Amino acid sequence: MDAGEEIRFYYDFKSPFSFLALAPACDLERTHRVRLRFVPRDFEPRLAYGGELEERGPRDWDKVRYLYLDARRFANQRGLIIRGPRKLYDSRLALMSGLYAERHGKFRAYAPIVFERFFRRELELEEPAALAVVMGEVGLDAEDFARYAAFTGRDDLAQAYEQAERDGVFGVPTLIVAGEPFWGNDRVTWAIRKLDAMGLRRADAGAAR
Which phi and psi (to 5°) does residue 147 adopt? Predict the structure, then answer.
């Protein structure tokens, strides 16, 4: 596949809006001469929404409830299920698994399953065994991942966070297109307009709708 532009897609597996953005972002590789690079970035819900669950005030909860209302509106349009997590998850292990899947060319198969099961409350992001099941389904070596996570994965994750800082990423999902950020699942359409203006639409993809 000829790729004229690299797009960095910043995500977190515990972010419902990253889940919503994944498929439309991946579709850009079909419609445009681009290549996506998937970069993990913890969106830090404690900072965004008032600390631990028991520390949140009424206004913080109003914000969270509204965001999940919006997420479900988007999800319902596409037949997806998004249920709010019952706790604040540490997604670092899962994000390392995303890096590992990307390294082995399996991210596009691996990530949708992790997202779907997590937001159905069928997968625990912090549990190595739960992630190992998905790895096995897409042809990844869970034992090799465990070794990666214990050593190289930590450094790779730190480097991904450093890349996010350089790109000025403050939330996920974020697409970086030719240095310009597009934050939010509903900003993929704006990224498409930029790519069209750059002359990157594939001839067989048709005009933008």
Answer: -65, -40
CA dihedral 60, 61, 65, 71 (to 10 degrees): 40
Report d(CA 1, CA 24) in Å as an integer.
18
Question: Given pLDDT bands bounded at 50, 70 and 90, which one contains residue 174?
Answer: very high
Q: What is the pLDDT of residue 86?
A: 86
- How far is the C-alpha of 128 from the C-alpha of 91, rounded, in Å? 11
CATH superfamily for 5-205 is Glutaredoxin (3.40.30.10)
Structure tokens at 111: 């990530």
Q: Report DSSP letters for the chain, one per residue.
A: ---SEEEEEEE-TT-HHHHHHHHHHHHHHHHBSEEEEEEE----HHHHTTSSGGG--HHHHHHHHHHHHHHHHHHHHHT------SS----HHHHHHHHHHHHTT-HHHHHHHHHHHHHTT---TT-HHHHHHHHHHHT--HHHHHHHHHTHHHHHHHHHHHHHHHTT--SSSEEEETTEEEESGGGHHHHHHHHHHTT-B-GGG----
Cα separations in angstroms, 3 against 102, 109, 178, 187, 202 = 17, 20, 13, 21, 10
Its pTM stands at 0.91
Q: Are 83 and 119 in contact (CB under 8 A)?
A: yes
Distance (Å, whole) CA 175 – CA 191: 8
